[in-house]
Amino acid sequence: MSDLVIHLARFAGALRDAGVRVSLGDEADALQALTRVDVGDRQEVRWALRCALRIRRVDAPMFEALFARLWEARAGEEAVEPPASQHGPSVPRAGLGLPFSTPRAAEVQVEVPEGDEPGYSREALFRRKPFDQCDERDLAAMERLLLRLAEQLATRRSRKLAPTHGRGQADLRRSFRRAVATGGELISLAVRTRPIETPRLVLLCDTSGSMEGHTRFLLAFARALRRVARRTEVFAFNTELKRITPWLSPARQDVVLSRLATAVPDWSGGTRIGESFDTFVHRHLNELVDARTVVIVFSDGLDRGDTDLLAEAMRRIRARSQRVIWLNPLLSDPRYEPTARGMAAALPFVDHFAPAHNLETLARVLPHLRA
């Protein structure tokens, strides 16, 4: 499996170098697709990658040429068997088992990374590395990847048409209304288009001691989401609730965290989720949450407060919002069961319950954030 990740990352890197738009989420989808096809069958792999990487029609010739170049060894040369993986059987010699070391594909003019590791293998490793095993250098690198993940939210077109000064569909009704002011002369044609629709998000982030290994990365994700979806509001909670949206400035993450540690009461301390959510309901729910809002909770659900209060607050949040998503880092452990008092009380009011312990799991959440 590790060999498959490496070769897929190299191929995606070569596509990006050639100007083909491939995101980290697309790579994760491609990896899942490859586990469900015969990687020794060229056509199955080609179609799986083309679909999962969402290759646009304009990029199809580049994809096909680069795929053919990377699939086959040079004319007259034999493909090289990849080294055996320590974590499972090696990938077959045909297909993605190639070493991907072709120096240049003349027909597509793409420089392919050389060496033992692919150019994007570091990103592939970052996607799977648990947040609680990362250091400050990892955080700096992951911030860029988190922003690229968040940018995928700014790709959905609204179902409603809106006036625009650019290209779009002719709006005859508005055009005729304009013509009234010019004596019936149709001087300019009004147009409308489907604007990019970004979701409205409210994030409730657990900053208690049990979440300390994940907090900085989840807050980095919150910052990335806010840069893309400007209507995003972010709150920190532990024993109290604190609105931290104004603190999520474009400054360096370590500076932001230092400010938050000072501004948020009981940072890395205990947890009273029920009391914190009750405060949110009474002070902010009517103002910030409506039927188009997605509410996201980052928490392990470990609570020492009033669970009845938590259940009632969650019921009211769910009733007013479009959906509630709860991201729990502990869910990555297959042995985990949501039996903690806080988690058990909140779960009946959660629409999507998912892990959030690395970049790969955050990428899977993105489709659920779209309104």
Give a description of the structure.
This protein is an alpha/beta fold and 371 residues long. The chain folds into three domains: 127 residues, no CATH class; 32 residues, no CATH class; 170 residues, 3-Layer(aba) Sandwich (Rossmann fold). It is 42% helix and 11% strand. The chain contains 14 helices and eleven strands. A hairpin with a 4-residue loop joins strand 1 and strand 2. The radius of gyration is 25 Å and the shape is globular. About 13% of the residues have low confidence.
CATH top-level class of the largest domain: Alpha Beta
Question: Got a strand count?
Answer: 11
Summarize the main sheet. Answer: 6 strands, mixed
Q: Which of globular, elongated, flat, extended, rod-shaped describes the shape?
A: globular
Roughly how many Å is the radius of gyration? Answer: 25 Å
Terminus-to-terminus distance: 35 Å
How much helical structure, as a percent, in the residues?
A: 40-55%
The number of helices is: 14
Strand content: 5-15%
The residue ranges in which pLDDT falls below 50 over 5 or more consecutive positions are 73-121
CATH topology name of the largest domain: Rossmann fold
Walk across the major sheet and give the strand order: 8-7-6-9-10-11
Question: Any chance you could write out the topology, listing elements then pairs?
Answer:
Blueprint: H1 2-17, H2 24-34, H3 42-52, H4 60-71, E1 104-105, E2 110-111, H5 121-128, H6 136-150, E3 162-164, E4 169-170, H7 172-180, E5 191-193, E6 200-206, H8 212-228, E7 233-237, E8 241-243, H9 253-263, H10 273-283, H11 285-288, E9 293-298, H12 307-320, E10 323-327, H13 341-346, E11 352-354, H14 359-369
Helix pairs in contact: 1-2, 2-3, 6-8, 6-14, 10-12
